[in-house]
Amino acid sequence: MSFLSPLLRLENLSTEPIMSLDHVPEAQRYNKDNIVAQWCAPINGKMYRIELEHGTTSGRRMIWVNGREVLRRDWMFKLVGEDTFSIEQARCIIRVDPAPGFKYEYLLYIDGKPHAQYTEELTRQYRLWLYTCGSSQTDEADAPQEYRIMLKLDTLSLYVNDELREETAAFVHGGTDTSFVLNETKFVLQARSSGNKHDGIVHTLLANDELVPEAKIQQIMQEPVSILQTN
């Protein structure tokens, strides 16, 4: 005979976590201080910032992509293992492995490849430039505008801050020029033959007739978070 109310019996207790973040708005759930690992990767012409929250005491594991929650597990008693999610058509896996000293190692795989290998291979398929324009407004308090300009070599698709541009290249002597304007700054993407089969076509970017140095995708990983944001 039980002295407990029937409602308190084990078989009547909820199996759902008693602590959840469902009632908290997404913008408030994201806390940069809780992020234990961060990666950056180009997928289908867009740049994505992938972040992992791994609560070793709370048992909570959360994955964020460009500041948006894509996976959340509460009250996980097993602190190691894999979580799978997708970014567009790319299959992504974050693996948590134990490390010496009661620490953890965090690994990201994209389409079955380690993040470093995936990024290195993608680097050869893109050209990347980073440029900062002053505000077109008269208010000096306005922050400069950061632009991430990417050219996908196999399709010659041009992306500016992850948005596909529709400009048409114009034929000029020795190649083509693609012109566009951002924040009152005139950009010209030039494509010229290198004169040898090994280098093929050389792409350069001009901003108001000044050469913009080419960047590497790995460089973005060291840039401020703002340049990775997509809304």
TrEMBL record:
Q: Which residues form a coiled coil?
A: none
**What is the protein named?**
Fas apoptotic inhibitory molecule 1
A single BP term in Gene Ontology = negative regulation of extrinsic apoptotic signaling pathway via death domain receptors
Looking up Gene3D superfamilies in the UniProt record yields: 2.40.128.180
Which Pfam families does the protein's record reference? FAIM1 (PF06905)
* Name of the gene: LOC117571260
